[in-house]
Amino acid sequence: MRTVTMKFGGTSVGSPEAIGNLVGIVGDAVRSGDRVIVVVSAMSGVTDQLINSVRAAAEGRRWDYLHTSQKLRDRHDEALNMLTQPGSDRENTRAEIAAMLDQHVELCSAVTILGEATPRITDAVVSFGERMSSRIVAAALNRQKIKARAFDAGEFIITDDRFGSASPIWEETHQRIRARLLPLLEQGIVPVITGFIGATCKGQPTTLGRGGSDYSGAIFAAATDSDELIIWTDVDGVMTTDPRIDRRARVLPTVSYQEVGELAFYGAKVLHPKTVQPILNKGIPMRVRNTFNPSHPGTLITAASHPSATIIKAVTSVNNVSLLTVSGKGMIGVPGIAGRTFLAAARAGANILMISQASSEQNFCFVVLNNNADDAKRAIESELAAEIARDDVDTVDVMDGVSIVTVVGSGMRGTPGVAGRVFTVMGDNRINVIAIAQGASECSISFVVESAKLQRAVIALHDLALEAVAV
Ligand code: ASP
Ligand code: MG
What we know:
471 residues; Carbamate kinase; VC0802-like; 6-stranded antiparallel sheet; 16 strands; 42% helix; globular; binds aspartic acid; binds magnesium ion
C-alpha cells in the first residue's frame, strides 16, 4: 500500500471550484488504495491579507482590520456553503472558523493597544489562513464520503522560536508525526494538515517563511516515509523558463533535486527553496502537478539527473537586485575583509544571492535584493571604517538596476565549453556581463546584467534549453 503526501497551494484551495478538484484528486487516490496525507496552504491571497491586517492594527487603522476579518469570513463561508450540505458538520466548521476570526480581531486590537506588531503576534495572526482552509478542505472531503480530519501542524512540527522563518527540530517533529499520523492512516483517515505553520515547544505558533507549505509537505512526506510527495499547484510543472518572460516556456518532464534547488533559489517560484532538504536523504520522489489539469503528468523530481542534450535545462532570473562592490588596493593578502563584509551584510538583514571575486583580490562584489542594498552598504562601511580611513578600502559601491540570470543543468559538471557557449550568446546579443559566478556544484552559472537587457538575455539562453526539449 502506497503512502502519498499531497500539498495543495493557495490557488489549489483558492475557490470552491479548486477545492472541488482537490476532492476529486484525493478521492481518486484513496479509491485506488493509497493512504493520503493532505497539506494545505491558505486560500490564495489570505496570508497577504492577514499580514496587512496586522500592519493596519499597528498603525491604529481599526476599520481596515475589521473589514479584512469580515471579508475573510464571507469568503470562507461561501466556500463552505458551496462544498458542504446543511447539517452539523457544516455548522461546526463554520463555528470553528468564526472563532478563529474573532481571535483575529482580538489579536489585532491587542496590536493596536501595543502600537507594535511583534513577529510572534504576526505569526499567530498569519496562522489563521491555513487553519481556516484546512477546516474547509476536511469538511469538503467528508461531504464526499472521504474520511478526513483537520489538524494544526503546531501539534507536529516543533520549531525554534525564530518567528517568521522558524526551523523545525527534527527529532521531536518526526517522532510526533509518526506517533500521531501513522495510526490515523491505518484507519483510512485522510489527515488535512495546515502547511506553513509550526509551534515552539511552548506551543506558540510559528511560521516557516513565505511559501513554506511546500517545505511542510516535504517534512510530512519524510517523516511518514511517503512513497511520493506531490506538490499540486496551478502550473503543469517546472518550466524551462518563466512564461511571462518567454511564452515558449515548456514543462520539463524530469529534473534532479539539485537542479530544482538551484531553480527555486534563483527565482523560479514553483517550489520553496528548502523543499528538497527533508526528502533528499530518503530519496522520496517528488512531482509538481497542476490541480486544474490533473491529467498532465507534471514534472518528476528525483535524485537521479537526466542531463539534457544541450546541457542547459532551464533559465531563471532575479530582478530588482543590487550589486555591491568592495574594492581597495590595501585589500591584497589581508584575510578577513570578505568575512567581515558578509557578516555586516547579514547583520543588516541582507541575504547574499551571489558572490564573485577576481584573483587580483583588489575587489569583490556580491548581489543583494534591492531593498537591502542601502542598509548593507551602511553596515559594511561602518564595519570597515578603519580600513576606509586608512584608504586600504574604498567606500562601498552600489550598482542598482541590475538582474541575475541563472542557467541550470547538472550536465554542466565535467562538460567543458558550457560557460563559453553561454557568454558567446551574450556577446552575440550585445549584452554586457557585469559579474559572473559558478558554484562548485557546477549545476548552474549565474551572472549579472543590466535589468534593461534581462529579457533579451533570458530569451537568447532559453533558445539553448528549448533545443534540448525539442529532441
Ligand atoms: N500561505 C503561505 C504564504 O502565502 C504559505 C504558502 O502558501 O506556502 O506564504
Ligand atoms: Mg504558496
